[in-house]
């Protein structure tokens, strides 16, 4: 193609303030593309037929193209068009011009490193019970809050040894989300997902440095961060019988105040089978992963395995101990009104726990239970259905399975994962936002950007790792593009990244610190047509993929949460690790 110089005056008009408002048409990944990656933007309006790409440093026109696929999605008449500039592979900053709009994008090595690092660092900001220091947190430093050294036994959690009103110490761990409570189900799931990806790419994580207090030790930062919460989780196990309290919580959500201003008493509540099995699973997993790090964490590996086996045996004896908050409130005082993380079925938790315990101990009894409770199809990981984490344990590429049953198990689970991946990538390149995620109404619900968009990407990565189908990997990157800006509202949905990102997440730490910018590196829940917070905020639209509002009051679309951050850590780290491999090829 013949290149020509574009007048800087015209471009500056499109970029900076000018008398006419610029059109808002282009949707693209605002963080960056790596050189050999597929690069697609979407025109978020009908009628766009061509586009131009200009090198921002030289003003040189480097590409002229016409749109490829033009399509609408099931709930919208808008015909969007894809603009493919994949042939550009020189690192640099570029302008994309289309439909009267101009958008900047970058091509660079490892664009996802910043996402992976920020997402992991977000856990440090969520730490309870220790000061968050300026040398690690900059302007977001804050004094310690919620020491949790005086936690009450709620009547629902009382037993012969620990009576209602007794005081225990249960310090450390992360705040769950926008609220200040600590929930076992969600933190076990979060660690489980991140540790699963750690096991795939240990060399990648060995090199990562996100500037946390433990960064100078001999353990990868990701594991140091996990330990901060694992250490808390150990205190949530009842020493009398091995069962695990469902959560550590105030009776009601606190207001939007600083941690140090919180005055409500904190309780541990009822031991539940789901919390106990998730605990067993993640402790067994951690016991294996932390084994080489005895120097920094002496004795932890063995302690975690003992705790896991005790928890598992409690769960076997208490299969019906599901956490049902309404029932609990009928029986006990005070009522507990905070996050439920309820579940009606603990089969997937049993499968994950038995799978990790079999892997950790080699005991056949665990294998038998894992086989019995194994899933009938693959579902992406979520706090409510953790079976994928068990699948990941079975399919770990380096794992050697012995014997007919084990091999059959591996084969079956692999076929489920492959079937899932094959199905979700179907038609992705013909969809409105050029991604496997986002073209069905069911793709949008509370927390969907992580629970489906990111976790589908991670599932595709896993399917690629065990099957070598490059199309799965390409589609995993497409979901990341969706999160980082190629979506209807044009948000990069991660705080602190991209040109337009959430400024007012439902996050008490961000809201109460007197700093305009929210804490960085958090993925918000995202578009949610359920609009369960509709009485507090006004949504701009009822469309599934536009039911999002960047307001502090919107807990159903704009909260942040550790499990959603975990999804971002998993997908961004895996894709960053693989992009390095691909760029080296
Ligand atoms: O899973 C189904 C999905 O299959 C279906 O397509 C979709 C369509 O409606 O619904 C999905 O269920 C939703 C579920 O989230 C998804 O995980 C439910 O409607 C929705 O009510 C449920 O919301 C949960 C929310 O608490 C309310 O209970 C979120 O998962 C959960 O992340 C959130 O967790 C809260 C904690 O309780 C308290 N701390 C903050 C945290 C984040 O908001
Ligand atoms: O802040 C709470 C958030 O963390 C939860 O996810 C959400 C759903 O359980 O609830 C939020 O608390 C709201 C409560 O449910 C209703 N009144 C307004 C509260 C937020 O200010």
Q: How many β-strand runs? A: 13
Whole-number mean pLDDT: 96
Bound molecules: ligand G3I, ligand 9MR
Helix content: 25-40%
Biggest sheet: strand arrangement: 10-9-13-12-11
Q: What is the beta-strand fraction?
A: 5-15%
Tell me the structural class. Answer: alpha+beta
Low-confidence stretches are 1-18
- Main pleated sheet: 5 strands, mixed
Count of individual helical segments:
18
Principal-axis shape? globular
For the termini, the CA-CA separation is 27 Å
Rg over C-alpha atoms, rounded to the nearest angstrom: 24 Å
Task: Report on this structure.
The chain is an alpha+beta fold and 585 residues long. 38% of the residues lie in helices and 9% in strands. The protein has 18 helices and 13 strands. It has a five-stranded mixed beta sheet. A four-stranded antiparallel beta sheet has the order 1-2-6-5, with no helix packed on it. A four-stranded antiparallel beta sheet has the order 4-3-7-8, with helices on one face. Strand 5 and strand 6 form a beta hairpin. Helix 4 packs parallel to helix 18 and helix 14 packs antiparallel against helix 15. It starts with 7 loop residues before the first helix and ends with a helix. The N terminus is likely disordered. Ligand 9MR binds next to loops. The site of ligand G3I has 18 residues, from loops.
């Amino acid at each position: 193609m013949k290149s020509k110089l574009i007048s800087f005056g015209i471009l500056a008009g499109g970029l900076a303030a000018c008398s006419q408002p610029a059109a808002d048409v282009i949707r693209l990944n605002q963080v960056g593309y790596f050189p050999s990656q597929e690069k697609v933007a979407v025109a978020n309006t009908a009628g766009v037929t061509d586009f131009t790409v200009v090198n921002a440093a030289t003003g040189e026109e480097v590409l002229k193209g016409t749109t490829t696929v033009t399509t609408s999605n099931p709930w919208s008449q808008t015909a969007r068009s894809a603009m493919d500039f994949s042939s550009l592979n020189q690192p640099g900053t570029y302008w994309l011009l289309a439909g009267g709009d101009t958008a900047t994008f970058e091509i660079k090595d490892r664009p996802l490193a910043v996402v992976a690092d920020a997402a992991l660092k977000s856990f440090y900001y969520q730490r309870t019970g220790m000061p968050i220091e300026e040398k690690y947190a900059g302007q977001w430093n804050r004094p310690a809050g919620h020491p949790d050294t005086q936690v009450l036994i709620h009547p629902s959690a009382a037993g012969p040894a620990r009576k209602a009103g007794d005081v225990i110490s249960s310090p450390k761990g992360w705040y769950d989300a926008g609220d200040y409570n600590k929930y076992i189900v969600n933190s076990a799931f979060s660690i489980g997902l991140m540790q699963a990806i750690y096991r795939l790419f240990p060399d990648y994580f060995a090199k990562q440095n996100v500037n946390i207090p433990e960064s100078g030790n001999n353990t990868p930062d990701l594991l140091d961060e996990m330990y901060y919460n694992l250490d808390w989780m150990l205190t949530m196990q009842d020493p009398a019988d091995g069962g695990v309290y469902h959560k550590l919580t105030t009776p009601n959500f606190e207001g939007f105040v600083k941690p140090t201003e919180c005055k409500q008493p904190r309780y541990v509540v009822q031991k539940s089978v789901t919390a106990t099995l998730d605990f067993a699973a993640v402790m067994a997993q951690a016991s294996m992963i932390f084994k080489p790090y005895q120097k920094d964490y002496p004795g932890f590996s063995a302690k975690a395995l003992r705790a896991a086996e005790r928890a598992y045996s409690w769960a076997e004896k208490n299969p019906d101990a599901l956490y049902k908050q309404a029932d609990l409130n009928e029986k006990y005082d005070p009522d507990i009104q905070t996050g439920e993380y309820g579940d009606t079925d603990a089969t997937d938790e049993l499968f994950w726990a038995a799978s990790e315990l079999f892997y950790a101990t080699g005991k056949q009894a665990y294998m038998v239970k894992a086989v019995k409770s194994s899933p009938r199809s693959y579902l992406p990981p979520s706090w409510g259905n953790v079976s994928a984490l068990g699948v990941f344990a079975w399919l770990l590429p380096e794992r050697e399975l012995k014997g007919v049953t084990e091999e059959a198990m591996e084969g079956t689970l692999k076929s489920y994962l492959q079937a899932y991946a094959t199905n979700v990538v179907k038609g992705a390149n013909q969809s409105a936002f050029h991604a496997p995620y986002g073209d069905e109404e069911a793709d949008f619900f509370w927390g969907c950007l992580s629970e489906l968009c990111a976790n589908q990407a991670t599932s595709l990565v896993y399917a690629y790792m065990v099957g070598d189908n490059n199309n799965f990997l390409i589609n995993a990157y497409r979901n990341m593009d969706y999160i980082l800006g190629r979506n209807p509202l044009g948000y990069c949905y991660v705080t602190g990244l991209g040109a337009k990102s959430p400024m007012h997440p439902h996050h008490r730490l961000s809201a109460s610190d007197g700093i305009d910018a929210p804490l960085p590196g958090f993925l918000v829940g995202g578009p949610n047509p359920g609009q369960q917070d509709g009485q507090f905020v006004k949504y701009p639209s009822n469309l599934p993929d536009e039911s999002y509002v960047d307001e502090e009051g919107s807990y159903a679309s704009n909260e942040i949460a550790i499990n959603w951050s975990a999804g971002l850590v998993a997908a961004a780290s895996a894709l960053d690790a693989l992009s390095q491999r691909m760029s080296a090829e």
